[in-house]
């Protein structure tokens, strides 16, 4: 009996060891870890579009797209386009003979009209409606020619709407045949990969589309695996079970030493900042806010929380974004301590004493550490900070109601400077303007920039807006964040400027 | 026994009702608009209204509760707010993974735990007893997620004999291969607990009069131990297995997230983070049901083993 058992165990170990070596030797497939699970694959109803984007851009094409590795906009389904003199009509000329997956026919102007009009139809409640806010109608001129008719010129259209998720073209026939609900789990696009399966683990597989009109994919099949736990992602990368993923900043250096993996840091497409609520007394005093800008040193946050791997931010716009202007930080080293003490005294708090501030932040470890660093920095000037950590629901309510003096946030995720600048508008006070700050000049410049199609002119407007914000001392820019794309050494990859994977350009060395 | 069984079965209904009520009040007490939490700044007023309507948050809680109960009784658990996936189908498709994981974890804990416990009782107050005691103490106090990470680091990264993630792509061998790590991680805490319980229960039993009497009759030690003593000593262990299954269901949550396995725990956690309330309700309801059934089975088996309870 005992001997049999030992033999059984021996056989099992042998079988297991053998089967694990078999599963690694697959060459035609790569596995990509994603930070979150996909909720739907219908571009018009994507809720957040961050985790899904690597899948969406494999399955779908748009009229235009970002050139791989940059934010330059180039034609995708469209060969060419022209703007009318008033910038309110844009005519797109589609490439001929482009096919949808699974025999759903040719991509035509009708599909473009259908794809965009379902987004702007208020009845359908698309979360992307905002991306097309000025689109009045889509006109089919002929089979391959389509016009977007705008109420007003819309500068954002080409920077972030059309090349991103909202601009993806779905097959009209497929949506009508399947119905919106079924389509969400069985998407039909015209991209380099076609949808294959949605597994019980929310793993999504796509396989190479042989009829793709552009650069054909190198790898037969890609599996996207949601792995919310960072450490699991790292272990899966180390063991070779996942070919592409992200690693934590604390282990970044050790993974860099790992010979079978490649890892690099990329700036995240976002901005993180410490915001001052200018409506909440005593933060309504600009002198006090200026003093706080001197005292708070974001560089310590970069070192303490981002393992010195993230870049310091100098604006809410990224350095390679249109209209970026660097607003230098106010450093204690640049003035003497007396200067800051004077500011505090003028604000009514000699030596900082008696000043109590409420700091609202998320309950996760990273944000808590940031809050503690700020608390310690302000304590040097006898300013007391009460940190209140909140789950997302109460935090959003606190944001809307302005129940804090200081808060920390991360906003972003599009390339357009206008989108990222809207959170400081007067009309966002009580919504997502976390500083509850309002400035007429800023609002006016923003409106003007939204309709300015000339990039140079538009850039100037954003630079002026950054100056206004800098003078108002409404917060401290911390960082754009950092991504750590990591991949198996036997692969050659092309990444987006924020470190995302372009699956169809991945190939084996 | 029959009356006892029926009584226990009837108790399921009020328990499930209480769970449902609690779940319901939670979704009303949760601060913030679900639509805003899901969509952030992109949530328009229309979308906030639509989603609240879909979740029944636009009506008073008792009306929504009544409607939900009616729906549940007719077997409809609702659909996810993101995709056209029925909650029941989603839960049922991952349930086997959680059941297999939990039962395997429990089986490992019982087999290893009882073995360690018996060995320790057999070598009472010797070096081996002490050593096994330390082992079971360490096992019992290791949280599941720590055990999971250690197993990953040792078996999957250092030795590279177990996979890091998933439940396998089909095939029995592949499935078992993927099950070993998670099941071991899940079992660790209960292995220690059962070992300690077995040891103390066994020691208590072998000092009883009837065992001493058997000894005085000159029956062999192993016969007394395994035929007489173990039969009685095993009762408290059976009683904790029911509880244990419930606990392991909770532990499965960590294991499923760390090993990236499909399962009920992971489905529910994902749903909570996404504020997919229909999915949360469905997941928790099924988990509560499993917990109750496991406890019921434990109680019944205990009653079966102990005539004093069954005849009460």
Approximately what portion of the residues of chain A adopt beta-strand conformation? 15-25%
User: Helix proportion of residues of chain A, in percent?
Assistant: 25-40%
Total number of β-strand segments of chain B?
0
Q: What sort of overall outline of chain B do the alpha carbons produce when their principal axes are compared? A: globular
Radius of gyration of chain B (Å): 24 Å
Terminal residue distance of chain B:
9 Å
Main structural class of chain A: alpha+beta
Average of per-residue pLDDT values of chain B:
85
| Oligomeric nature of the chains | heterodimer
The order of strands across the largest sheet of chain A is 16-15-17-14-18
Instruction: Specify the number of helices of chain A.
Output: 16
What's the β-strand tally of chain A?
22
- How many H/I helices of chain B? 14
As residue ranges, the low-confidence spans of chain B are none
Order of helix and strand elements from N to C terminus of chain B: HHHHHHHHHHHHHH
Shape, per Cα inertia axes of chain A: globular
From the helix content, strand content and strand pairing of chain B, which structural class follows? mainly alpha
Largest interchain contact: A-B, 49 and 50 residues
Helix content of chain B: over 70%
Topology:
The complex is a heterodimer of chains A (509) and B (312).
Chain A: H1 2-24, E1 29-34, H2 53-59, E2 64-66, E3 73-75, E4 78-83, E5 89-94, H3 109-120, E6 135-142, E7 145-150, H4 156-161, H5 172-178, H6 180-185, E8 193-198, E9 204-208, E10 221-226, H7 230-238, E11 244-246, H8 252-257, E12 261-263, E13 266-267, E14 270-276, H9 286-295, H10 298-305, H11 337-346, E15 356-362, H12 365-379, E16 384-390, H13 392-401, E17 406-412, H14 417-421, H15 440-450, H16 455-472, E18 475-479, E19 482-483, E20 485-488, E21 491-492, E22 507-508
Parallel strand pairs in A: 1-10, 15-16, 15-17
Antiparallel strand pairs in A: 2-3, 4-5, 5-7, 6-7, 8-9, 9-10, 11-20, 12-20, 13-19, 14-17, 14-18, 21-22
Helix pairs in contact in A: 9-11, 10-12, 15-16
Chain B: H1 2-29, H2 34-39, H3 45-54, H4 61-73, H5 87-122, H6 127-140, H7 144-158, H8 172-206, H9 209-216, H10 221-233, H11 235-258, H12 264-274, H13 277-305, H14 307-310
Helix pairs in contact in B: 1-13, 5-6, 5-8, 5-11, 5-13, 6-8, 7-8, 7-11, 8-10, 8-11, 11-12, 11-13, 12-13
């Amino acid at each position: 009996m005992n001997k049999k058992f030992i033999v059984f165990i021996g056989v099992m170990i042998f079988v297991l060891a053998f089967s694990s070596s078999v599963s690694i030797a697959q060459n035609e497939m790569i596995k990509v870890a994603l930070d979150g699970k996909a909720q739907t694959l219908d571009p018009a109803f994507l809720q957040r579009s961050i985790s899904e984007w690597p899948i969406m851009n494999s399955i779908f094409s748009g009229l235009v797209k970002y050139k791989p590795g940059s934010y330059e906009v180039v034609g995708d389904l469209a060969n060419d386009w022209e703007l009318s003199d008033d910038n309110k009509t844009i005519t797109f000329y589609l490439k001929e003979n482009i096919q949808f997956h699974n025999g759903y026919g040719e991509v035509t102007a009708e599909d473009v009209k259908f794809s965009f009009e379902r987004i702007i139809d208020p009845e359908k409640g698309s979360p992307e409606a905002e991306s097309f806010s000025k689109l009045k109608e889509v006109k089919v001129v002929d089979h391959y020619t389509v016009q977007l008719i705008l109420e007003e010129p819309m500068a954002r259209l080409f920077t972030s709407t059309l090349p991103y998720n909202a601009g993806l073209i779905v097959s009209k026939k497929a949506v009508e045949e399947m119905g919106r609900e079924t389509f969400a789990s069985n998407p039909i696009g015209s991209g380099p990969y076609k949808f294959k399966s949605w597994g019980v683990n929310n793993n999504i597989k796509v396989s190479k589309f042989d009829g793709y009109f552009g650069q054909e994919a190198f790898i037969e099949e890609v599996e996207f695996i949601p792995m919310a736990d960072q450490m699991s992602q790292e272990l899966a990368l180390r063991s070779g079970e996942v070919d592409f993923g992200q690693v934590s900043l604390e282990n970044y250096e050790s993974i860099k030493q790992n010979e079978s993996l490649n890892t690099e840091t990329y700036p995240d497409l976002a901005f993180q900042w410490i915001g001052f609520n200018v409506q909440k007394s005593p933060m309504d005093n600009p002198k006090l806010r200026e003093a706080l800008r001197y005292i708070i040193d974001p560089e310590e946050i970069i070192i303490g929380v981002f393992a010195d791997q993230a870049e310091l931010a100098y604006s809410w716009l990224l350095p390679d974004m249109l209209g970026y202007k660097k607003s230098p930080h106010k450093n204690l080293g640049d003035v003497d301590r007396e200067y800051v003490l004077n500011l505090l005294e003028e604000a009514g708090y000699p030596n900082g004493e008696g000043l109590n501030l409420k700091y609202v932040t998320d309950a996760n470890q990273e944000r808590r550490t940031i809050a503690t660093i700020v608390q310690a920095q302000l304590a040097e000037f006898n300013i007391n900070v009460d940190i209140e950590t909140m789950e997302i629901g109460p935090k959003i309510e606190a944001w809307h109601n302005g129940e804090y003096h200081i808060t920390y946030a991360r906003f972003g995720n599009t390339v357009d400077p206008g989108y990222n600048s809207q959170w400081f508008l007067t009309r966002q006070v009580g919504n997502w303007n976390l500083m509850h700050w309002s400035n007429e000049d800023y609002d006016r410049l923003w409106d003007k920039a939204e309709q300015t199609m000339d990039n140079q002119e538009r850039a100037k407007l954003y630079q002026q807006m950054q100056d206004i914000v800098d003078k108002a001392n409404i917060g401290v820019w911390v960082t754009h964040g950092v991504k750590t794309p990591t991949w198996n050494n036997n692969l050659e990859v092309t990444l987006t400027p924020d470190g995302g994977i372009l699956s169809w350009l991945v190939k084996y060395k | 026994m029959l009356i006892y069984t029926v009584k226990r079965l009837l108790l399921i209904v009020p328990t499930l009702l209480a769970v449902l009520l609690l779940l319901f009040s939670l979704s009303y007490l949760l601060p913030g608009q679900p639509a805003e939490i899901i969509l952030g700044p992109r949530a328009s007023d229309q979308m906030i209204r639509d989603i609240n309507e879909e979740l029944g948050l636009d009506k008073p809680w008792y009306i929504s509760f009544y409607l939900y109960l009616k729906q549940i009784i007719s077997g409809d658990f609702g659909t996810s707010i993101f995709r056209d996936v029925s909650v029941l189908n989603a839960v049922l498709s991952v349930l086997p993974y959680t059941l297999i994981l939990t039962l395997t974890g429990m089986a490992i804990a019982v087999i290893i735990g009882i073995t360690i416990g018996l060995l320790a009782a057999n070598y009472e107050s010797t070096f081996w007893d002490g050593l096994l005691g330390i082992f079971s103490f360490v096992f019992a106090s290791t949280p599941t997620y720590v055990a999971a990470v250690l197993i990953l680091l040792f078996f999957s990264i250092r030795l590279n004999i177990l996979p890091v993630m998933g439940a396998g792509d089909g095939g029995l061998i592949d499935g078992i291969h993927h099950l070993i790590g998670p099941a071991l991680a899940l079992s660790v805490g209960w292995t220690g607990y059962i070992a300690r319980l077995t040891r103390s229960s066994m020691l208590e039993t072998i000092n009883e009069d009837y065992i001493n009497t058997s000894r005085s009759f000159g029956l062999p030690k192993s016969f007394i131990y395994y035929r007489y003593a173990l039969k009685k000593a095993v009762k408290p262990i059976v009683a904790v297995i029911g509880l244990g299954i419930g606990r392991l269901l909770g532990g499965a949550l960590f294991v499923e997230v760390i090993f990236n396995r499909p399962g009920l725990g992971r489905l529910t956690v994902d749903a909570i983070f996404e504020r997919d309330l229909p999915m949360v309700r469905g997941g928790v309801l099924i988990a509560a049901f499993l917990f109750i059934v496991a406890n019921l089975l434990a109680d019944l088996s205990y009653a079966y083993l102990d005539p004093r309870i069954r005849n009460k």
